[in-house]
Amino acid sequence: MQNCLCRAKLFSAAQKYIGTSFKLWGRSADTGLDCVGTLSLSLQNIGFVGDIPIGYSLRQRSNKRISDFFTRPEFCPINIDSAYHVAGNIIMVRPDARQVHFAITAGRGLSAIHAYHAVQSVVCAPMPDNWPISGAWKYCACPTSSGQ
Q1: Do you know which InterPro entries this protein is assigned to (predicted)?
Q2: Cβ atoms of 63 and 100 closer than 8 Å
Q3: Is residue 148 domain-resident?
Q4: Are 7 and 87 in contact (CB under 8 A)?
């Protein structure tokens, strides 16, 4: 039950940023967000305490720093084949071989919330079908309503 609650909270938190302007390396809803900024603020809004990787380049030979981040106990890997089926999962997709992009699934088809450079905004829309998923996680550390 806790995992479903976390997913619902993450999806709800991410929805607040739909319509926010896109800004590369953006970390503020006031000035604009990129995909990492959207994920970071959404996680912080549901109680995540920690540093999201920063200082990344758009083109990466390795995504080790990002992959290492998701080995934290707050994140549980999930099957990439079923990642879109539930709202609130975190997915890492590959727009091309050297680029990673993050989104939060909407639970409707291939839709997800993400900062989309092509439209210069955070959107909830179908992901391009030529962006394969290379990682998927659920956030498993939401505080309970009793503060535990």
Answers
A1: Papain-like_cys_pep_sf (IPR038765)
A2: yes
A3: no
A4: yes
**Mean pLDDT of all residues in the chain?**
88
pTM above 0.85, yes or no: yes
3-state DSSP assignment of residue 102: strand
Closest CA to 14 of 34, 39, 32, 31: 39
* CB-CB contact of 83 with 136 (8 Å): yes
Q: Which ranges in the chain belong to alpha helices (H)?
A: 2-15, 35-45, 64-69
Say if 110 falls within a structural domain: yes
Alpha-carbon distances, residue 27 vs 35, 41, 97, 125 (angstroms): 9, 8, 25, 21
pLDDT score for 59: 65
Percent of the chain with pLDDT over 70: 87
Count of structural domains, the chain: 1
